[in-house]
Structure formats: C-alpha cells, structure tokens
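Can't attach files on this board, so I'm pasting raw text. These are the components:
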Amino acid sequence: MISMPPSERDLHAYVDHQLSDADRRLVETFLASNPEISAQVRAWQLDAQQLRAALGGALQQPANPNLDPALIRRRLKHQSRRHLASAAVLLIAVGVGGFSGWQARQMTLVGAPLPMTDALQAYRLIAQQEILPADYKASDDGDMQGWLDRYFNRANRLPDLAGAGFKPVSGRLLSTDQGPAAMVVYENLRGQRISFYVRPPGPKNFMLPRGSRSDGDLQAEYWSGGGYNYAMVSPADTAAAQMLRQTANF
Amino acid sequence: MNDIDEQLREIIPGLRRFAVSLTRNTSSADDLVQACLERALSSWGSKRAEGDLRAWLFSILYRQFLDAHRRSRRYARMLDFFTGRDDAQPSVERTVIAQSTLNAFDRLPTEQRALLLWVSVEGLSYKEVAEILDVPTGTVMSRLSRARQALRQLSDGEINRPSLRRLK
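---
Top answer:
Structure tokens for the assembled complex are below.
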C-alpha cells in the first residue's frame, strides 16, 4: 500500500499501470482533488499515448525474409562449419548517397588477424555473397580511378588488368578497425572477379612487405605503398590468381 | 523448434520497431535485429534466462546496439568524411502523426528512448526493465522519471518552435 500524498515514483507507476488496484484507486482519489499534479500526470499519459500512436506504424513494416528464425537457424548451422575461416575484424559498410547507415557486424574473434584479412572478408561480402551493394558502378567510359581518387588520392594507381581480360566494374567504401577502406571489383567476360582493396596501415603504421597468402577458397596478394596497404583478392587456383601472384609490382 | 520460431515470429515486429527507434534507420535496424536473433538462437540453451522472452531479446538487441554504437563512434569522423552528412537524422518514413512527440523522442539520448519504448510502448514491467539494464528497480524508476521530464520539455519546445508558434 502506498502512502499519501503519492511520491513521484508512485505517479509514474500509476501512469504505467504498475500499481495494485487498491493503490490505483488511492491515487485517483488524490488526483481528483489536486488539479496541478493531475495535469502533470495527464501530460505524461498523453505523451505515452502519442508515442504509442507515433510508433504504431513501425509495427506494420513489410516482412523481411532475412529475419525469419528458421532461415537464421539454417544460416547459423552453415556458419559454424566455417567458423575458423573468418577472422578478427570489424567491418562497417558506409552507404554513400544512399540511405543506408552504419551496418556493423562483429566477426568471430579468432586470435590475431593475418595480413589483410579485412580485404578477404570484403571480397566475400561484396564480390561473392553480394551482401553489400556497390557505391559506384563504372559506366562504359568508367572512371573508376576518378572515384577512388576522391577518397585515396595519394594511393597507388589501380592496376591495369585489361591484358588478362579484367576491367574495373564497381567500387565500395568500407570502414575497418584500421581506418577507411575502398574496394574495387574487376570482372572479366566470364563473370570472374578480382578485387583491389586499399586502406591506411592503421594506428601502428603497419607496412607490409610484398606477400601472398591463401585463405579458404581465396588468395590475397598484398603490399604497401604511398602510405597505404593494398590487397588483390581472387579465387585461388585460377589463372587470374596465378597471374597476380607472379606480379611483383602492381 | 517450430514452437520457438512461432514465438519469435510474433516478437520480431516489436524488435524491429525497437531497433528503428535506436538506429533511426530501417535498414540498419534490420541488420541489428538479425544480429540479435543470431545471438539469441546460438546461445539459446546456455544463456536463455527464465522469464519473458521478449525482455530477453530486447536486452540482447540493446547491448548489441550499444556495443556497435560505441565502436562506430570511433569512426564517426571518418564516416562524416565519407558521407558528408549526419546519419542520425530521422528518416522520412517515420514522419507520422504525433510529430512533436516523435521529434522530441528522437532527440532523447539512447537510454531514455529505450526506457520509454519499453515501458510506455511495449508495456514491460519495471522489474523486467531493471533486469535488462541490470540495475535496481528504483534506479529504473528515477531514470524513467528523468526521461519523461525530458520528453515533456522537448515536446513543449517542439510546439513552441517559431514556425509552429500558434498558441498564445
């Protein structure tokens, strides 16, 4: 049983229907003879009502099939098999010009990251699974270099892979735990994809010697230059992968 | 399994609404809901506390939002550099009735938005909210009181904005 006059907490509990019936009647009697407090309580009730009305529409969104529990269950089962293949990096995709905001997903933490793990992850998300859309698509005269220069104007030039049949087709900005990154996807006529990935070396200014490593079904060639780190990622065991591995300087 | 999935399906619209009120953006909100469901389903056996399923899911989603938000703030300046705009603007699709209350709500700090949504909109009990935030019930009540005052003041401010000043 609450005491009279009711405390402010009691009044909130009244607004929120969290009082017993007996207490509720006590408060109502009190309010009937205290117009000032009664007005305040009514204002709170009104705010709550308006909030419910205003947010009611948000319940009517069209269903998003990606949120179906059965589907998520299946995906989880699938992922747990590839658990060790993913690595420690936070990837935030930044939508430019579109309306998407931050999309952050913490990847599974498995010890210290290997060089340019984020480049491999970005390749999987963008070039393989197409989870993240492109920010920029090259038109026929496609000035991909111009797009990249808007963000990384001191960086190495985009490698020319036309000789191997690959042309830059789209670009995407990302952010990583080492700083902002950009990825350009090259494609050949058969739809095979290679990515060029650039980002700052991170707070520890970690520069990479020219190196190569494979990770699952992918291969990454990495190096540093012009104050940035780079990677070229491609499916392993392809002619393109071999060509990239034999390129000493991009 | 199917039984659990049915229960989840009923709660998902509420989770999406909560996520929108946190992120102010429907696509980020769905990412958040998805991450929340993934977490919930993968830790179902070990972590699932007794009590209201809805409150448990709200608490997972809220923590994930705070974690991600904390991390993303570190890159906020960089995001501005890329996007050249403040992403914290309420989106057009939320322009609905009770505009002044909603505008005021959108300007509240995260925790106050969450509190008001849980209590006033979703009707969670103080005890459930106390469990979500991991604070005593009394603390929930004083924070709720502050949130309500803040909403009240901001709503009045909305009405009294010069362009809307009709009342006298």
